[in-house]
Hints:
10 helices, 14 strands, alpha/beta, single chain
Amino acid sequence: MTGTERLATVVMSIASSDTSGAEGVQADLRAFAAAGVHGTCALSMLSAQGTRGVRKVSPLPPDLVRAQIETVLDDLRPRAVKTGALGNATTVEIVADALRERKDVALVVDPVVNPTRGRALTDDAGVATIARELVPLATLVTPNRDETSRLAGRARGLEDARRACRTLVDMGAKAVLIKGGHFTGNDAIDLFYDGKDFCELRAPRRELPTMLGLGCTLSALITAFLAKGELLIDAVRRAHATLQRAIEAPRRLSESVYTVGDLDDAIASASPTIVTMRNPTLVPIAPVATTSAATAGADERSNTA
């Protein structure tokens, strides 16, 4: 070793530990490694979680959460941070306080409320604090339909989703990606909004078994690609394409539950689609008028972590 080697590109996940290894910090670290960045983490809570659901969750003491985050930020200086399930308002406030002055760090907020199966991972006060404290700091917010409803009002269809995107940007987020697997139609559509333009990222809708870790993996890949210097829309498109590849050959964890497949192969094979834009397809959408949205929406169980 000569001491002249380039420093690793560092990213951080602040999220819950998942004993199944399919969601939470474990899924994030797996995605980080596949994307070629060095993953670090700060645990928000511990969970007893498997393919049948979440049995028990235990938030970590606030001083320990704060110490983990500050250690990574001060020592390893990540270029991008992703948040996942944070549990409660106290933890959300600690995360926001630690990141508020880190203007050079990209922040991807994945506002995980419910896992694919089992009890809620973030309580009502925590969700409200995410909306008030973390969303204004976010480079990108990546809620699914149900999480969007909790943060910014009903998101039953694409028109609702566009209104919710505008609301989240009005709250301070630089951009929003609503994961749209729950929307009806022949295509599964993720809706991206950067405060100016709406874009749809489409993939053919397919019948999937119960699959763990899709949302975690998508937001973690975006975080990694941002840290490597990609533009936001390019990072989103590449992560979307990678996930579509990874679910073509999922890993079976139990009788009827799967998780994403090999991400290394998916990243390699998905990269050309970013140039051709065949999958995903990027479609500009005409602007819609801004309307106000209630902050309390339906609390439906999510199929995307």
